[in-house]
């Protein structure tokens, strides 16, 4: 598993590399000292896993994750306050408090192997589009989530932001719907209108609507109008 270590502290990077040596399935292919360096290395190396520090000069580990379309598997390595960690601890693969203890590292890697067996890493070609098995990082205020796209039922445009619907959550991200639409796999996601992209796997009911359009109800309860222009494509996609 190609692995990148992102940490501004040289000694922390070296210590982690030493701790990882006995784990033969972890192949450390690079180190990054800050967010900009990490973005460059991620684009160059396409790692499957990132060991990521949170507090770094300039930009944080959260800033890095927000800048990525496709988020590799992430294990946090941080001295971050335990209470702040509660914002994302149930969503991250794992987090390790510094100084990293060998037994906690083993637990994290064990979780990684279980998760990898369930969801093999996509190939470089598959990473070009975002499909249902990909995960994205969503941050809204103090709350953070790693969200599998299969669990996102709806993207809704709201000015310069997008509201992301998953579970009982509706956080906002700063991105245009057009830019997102270009990255999403059209086998899973459908541009229903100027304001909405829906996950086809979450469609529950379909009714005819005004002017030749359709009204789609999602399993989360949302009702989305499919424009007349898109209705024919939607019927073809859903084999109506």
TrEMBL record:
Residues 138-240 form the HTH LytTR-type domain. Keywords: Phosphoprotein. PROSITE patterns: HTH_LYTTR, RESPONSE_REGULATORY. CDD domains: REC_LytTR_AlgR-like. The keyword Phosphoprotein applies. Residues 2-113 form the Response regulatory domain. InterPro entries: CheY-like_superfamily, LytR-like, LytTR_DNA-bd_dom, Sig_transdc_resp-reg_receiver. It comes from Marinoscillum luteum. The modification 4-aspartylphosphate is found at residue 53. This is LytR/AlgR family response regulator transcription factor.
